[in-house]
Every structure is written in C-alpha cells, then in structure tokens.
Specification:
single chain; alpha+beta; Phosphorylase Kinase, domain 1; D-amino Acid Aminotransferase, Chain A, domain 1; seven-stranded antiparallel sheet; 6 helices; globular
C-alpha cells in the first residue's frame, strides 16, 4: 500500500495528501462515535458502505448542478477530493422532528415539521458543536452574508433532491448534516459541498414502518447497525462488489 503523508484524522475519516496539487485522499474508517465522541465503537464495513453511498449521492448532486469537492472513488475505502477551506459551520436540515430538536422544543419525535428548518452549529468538538444563529456566523467571520446565503440556497436544493430520491426507494429523509468549503481556482472562490453524505450524517427512516436505517441504531443501541447501512446501500443499488469487506488503510508518513 502506498505511503502517504497524513494531513488529518477525524472521528470517521482520515485525510491524506493527494497525488496532484489541490487534491486530497479521503479514507473512510469503520470507527463510530456518537454524542460528540462520548460514545465510541466500530461498525464493521461502515467505511466501505459510506464511501460508496457518499460517492453515489455526490455524483447525483453534481449532475443536478450542485458543486462538490468530490472527484472520483479510488477504491473500496478511499475517494479523491478537491482540497477546500472548510467553513467551520455545520448545516442541519430538518424535515421531521427527531433527536435534539425534539428534546429542546418538546416536539414528539416523528412529528412532521411545518416546513424544512435549517439550523447552524459551530464546528468545535471541544465545545460540543454548539447551536448558533446566522448572526454568530457573520459577526465572527466564519462566513460572509453572501456565502451564508449561498450555503442556505444550496442546502435547500440538496434537501429537495435527496428527499425525493430517498422517498423513491422507500426511505424518509428525517434530517441530515452538511458541510461546505471554499474552493479556490485561479484567484476565484466558490462555495462547494464537502465532507460526506451517508447514514452517518443522515437520519433515514423506512417510509412504511419508520424503522431507523442510520447511525441512530448505534447511538441508541438498537442493534443491526451493519444491516441497516447495507440496506440503504442495497436500496440505492450500490452494494460494494465484494460486500462490505475490510480493507486496510494506507500507511501514513507523519
């Protein structure tokens, strides 16, 4: 396996220096975390499945005009992405009450929201990614008002597309998290979708039964976590060629 310089290791992915300037290799791990890293575990084959699922969704979004950092999948656990400057704001789009909004506002989980609600969190693990307002984003310079407008518009477009796509395979997109980055090309900057879209970052419920098909199965000790991820991939028609087998990552050079 090629030796590459490791740039960063997060809770679910490792980033390595890419083969060409301005590129990064994104490696998907099987590690699972919840409650801002307070609960840790392993979901066998998760990295393989998330790599394929995120590839599929990024490509579909790219085809409908959403700019992304995705370039191509390299193998079962790695994909090549453009190097971007990450905006330190997580965007959460909610269509149905679940998780923290149910606890904060006393809304019964599963209640359809009057309309899609967009929330923002400051990306900071030490602070447990606190909920913030648009005023915080612009006042502290995490994004300009124009960038935030673009992020909001892209987030709603992505929600419309993914909601319909998932509904077509019998899944309800309850809520999901997005991250964005600044891509610099010849002194020009544009906002692009970054990170990943997978059952790690989405709440997906079966349309008929409301069975949870995402990381909530790990968070809430519901069991059959691997099977839920596999079922999402199966419905999308993208199960890995050899199944969610393990693949060792590249050796890192510090």
């Amino acid at each position: 396996m090629a030796r590459r310089r490791q740039i960063y290791e997060g809770k679910a992915k490792v980033l390595f220096e890419g083969p060409e300037p301005g590129t990064i290799v994104q490696y998907f791990k099987d590690d699972a975390t919840a409650f801002n890293n307070k609960k840790k575990g392993t979901i066998t084959g998760k990295g393989v499945l998330n790599n394929r699922i995120s590839e599929f969704l990024m490509m579909r979004l790219g085809e409908m005009g959403v700019p992304t950092h995705f370039l191509r999948r390299l193998n079962m656990r790695e994909q090549l992405i453009r190097q971007v400057e990450i905006v330190p704001v997580e965007v959460i789009i909610r269509n149905v009450a679940a998780g923290s909004i149910s606890k904060r506002l006393g809304i019964e989980e599963g209640t359809p929201l009057p309309r899609s609600i967009v929330e923002y969190c400051y990306k900071n693990d030490e602070l447990d990614d606190p909920l913030i307002a648009e005023e915080h984003v612009t006042a502290f310079g995490w994004a300009t008002p124009q960038e935030l407008d673009e992020i909001l518009a892209l987030s709603l477009r992505i929600n419309d597309y993914l909601s319909g796509m998932f509904y077509g395979i019998g899944l309800k997109l309850v809520d999901f998290k997005l991250e964005f980055g600044r891509l610099w090309e010849n002194e020009q900057m544009r906002i692009v979708l970054a990170d990943e879209i997978s059952p790690d970052s989405c709440r997906l419920w079966d349309v008929s039964t409301n069975e949870k098909m995402d990381k909530d199965r790990f968070r809430r000790d519901l069991g059959s976590v691997e099977e839920a991820y596999q079922e999402v991939a199966r419905r999308l028609g993208i199960l890995p060629e050899s199944g969610p087998a393990d693949l060792k990552g590249p050796e890192a050079v510090q």
